[in-house]
Specification:
The protein is an alpha/beta fold. It has 26 helices and 16 strands.
Amino acid sequence: MRFSIRCPFSGGPNYSHRIKKAKVLFFSEVTSLISKPSNDPATLTAASVRANMQPWPTGTHVPATTANSSHTQRAPMPVGRLLETLTAYAMDPTQWDAVAEEVARHADDLATMNPADFLSHLSHAESLAWQLRGAGDADGPSQYAYALLTEDRSALAFSPNFVGLNKYVHGSVQERLHCTSSESQAELDDACAKLSNGIAHQALVTLRRSGEASRFGYVISADRLPTALRLAHPGARLALFIAHDSASNSLRRVLQSSFALTDAETNVTLKLAAGLPLKEAASSLGISVNTARNQLQSVFDKTGVKRQSDLILVITQLSVILAATVAESPYNSAQELSDQDYPAYQFTITPDGRKLAFRVYGSGPQPVLYFHEAVGGSRLLPGTDRTARELGLRVIVPDRPGCGFSDPHPQYGFASVATDMLSILDTLEVRSAVFIGVLSGAAHALAAACAVPERCEHLLCVSGRLPSATDTARHGPLVQLRSNLAKQPWMLNSFFNILRSRSSDSLHRRLVTRTYGASAVDAAVLQNQPLVMEHLVASTLESLAVNSAGIIDELRAFAAHPTLPLERLTAPVTLWHGRHDTISAPEAIAAYMGERASHQRVFEDAGALLVFQRWREVLEEAAKQGATGRQILP
């Protein structure tokens, strides 16, 4: 049974006037950004979260001796800190290093404790993650930085971009904020006092620094905080929001393309927009005031604006629009890629009634069965369909059970996955094919080749992971964490449920960077080849679109360290591996395969992302190794 469906995932005299106008504009913009109605449903939800736990702010150290009333009902030590760490992870899933450390530290304790003792705490963490998902990104817009303060005005947490404003105001967690200007400090203290005493709910302060343009800070009370920040940091009583520079590369490009401004004219315009008087702007650019004045007059002529204050207003408004509409990434896959890069999904129904999803790239005579990485699926690099046609390939890529749009298998294992994958060949009436296994998919490809050797013409393993115990010394924190969690199924489910609940483009971008960034070679690939980063982000999003069962079941399968019947393997085997792979070593898989590996190639300039660096070569190898005498089922 088979059907197809298209899934499109695919200074000067006007200075004081200008400062006043800028204050009003900033005040109105930030008010609209962070004001929330008093009947916001998420506010009620926050109360229930606060009643059960007091999570520590994202990215802060959790003191080992900390205790409060919300901790008295938690599981007995020594795992109390682990529970706090899980809560921090729910607020920011990229903070898995602390979870990995705690799980490893308490591995023996966890093995002997009753999982029921942890269920309420795990459910609280999962609930918090889902509430944060509905409330939006707790980091807020990147155009603004913030500091969250306690009742005594000590810093509770900062946005990651706050450090960029340390010329004006600085501080650290559990310490008071300090302005570099005594005048600004007096304004900030006065504003905080008014809010703490209930005299006001918001106040504007001017942050000054000698030789720099002034910035404006907006102090608000806790009830005006964005919902996500209230949920993540319930101890916050005040917050200081500060606007960052609006002179982004996007703004520069838009100014030049829209008004035909020269570089010199753009430089003067952006300096004025940043709050510098014309004289100071000229000095900072190394030009005379007369030259700057002439350039400004040219800007007036080109833009149709006749006053400096009006020009500042235009630039400020434009920067706000760009911040809301222009992606930070230099490459946006959703804008650049067409449906032709991703063939329509096809589906087949298994005898037990489960749905399996797959895509087919190309239409050549040589079938290829592709086994994807752990958090991946049938989405391959853009251009694969075209390349497959050029090489005479028909690349069949299933979503493994529980990944993407394939239903989970109730008894997931290497054997059951092999049966599912080969059933898709039956659906397409393909007798045999070249098998390609990538990363953890290599173990599944090997298992399938052993289960039904007559259907595998050639096995190509790229950066393969073994289905047996391996040397974990070279593994990164996330891999070690997965290995430890696999021994505790009840924690494994919560860990990935939280990850999926916070799933977003920005989160997966950070996860991809953390997963592969341990290798300088792989980090360079992600930085210099944006197409690879966009593909990995989109692939992980698609993999977790429906559930996280696929990655959970796969980790359990690997944790069992199954012994595969390699003696049944009859197809020739080619091993490709990057020398700088930080997850598994080429020597390990070569030793595992022994004499069964007919050819091994180690790429000295590659790491774990080898398959994405040399994708066309991988397909060319499959075309070269394909058997010429394959048969089609009658």
